[in-house]
């Protein structure tokens, strides 16, 4: 039976764990970035609609029709 090199096994396990955590972190930030862009686009669209409505509301002049 071959002797076990526990130090090498531990080192490889730590490297694999670090690589997996980095992969998960990259995946998380990619998804957060995508959702952030979608949310920003929706907020911009909503604010543009509200701004247009408010512009029409405040530009109305009842004395202009007389």
Protein model, in words:
With 66 residues, the protein is mainly α. The longest helix is centred in the middle third of the chain and has 54 residues. Helices cover 82% and strands 0% of the residues. The chain contains one helix and no strands.
Produce the secondary structure layout:
Elements: H1 6-59
Attribute tags:
66 residues; mainly alpha
For the record, give the distance between the C-alpha atoms at the N and C termini, rounded to a whole number.
104 Å
Structural class: mainly alpha
Number of helices: 1
> Please, what is the average pLDDT?
91
How would the global form be characterised?
Answer: rod-shaped
The residue fraction in helices comes out at over 70%
* SSE string: H
What is this entry, summarized?
The chain has 66 residues and is mainly alpha-helical. Helix content is 82%, strand content 0%.
């Amino acid at each position: 039976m071959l002797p076990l090199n526990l130090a090498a096994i531990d080192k490889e396990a730590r490297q694999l764990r670090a690589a997996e955590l980095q992969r998960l972190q990259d995946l998380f930030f990619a998804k957060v970035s995508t959702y952030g862009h979608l949310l920003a686009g929706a907020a911009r669209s909503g604010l543009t609609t509200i701004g247009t409505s408010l512009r029409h509301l405040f530009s109305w002049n009842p004395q202009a029709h007389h």
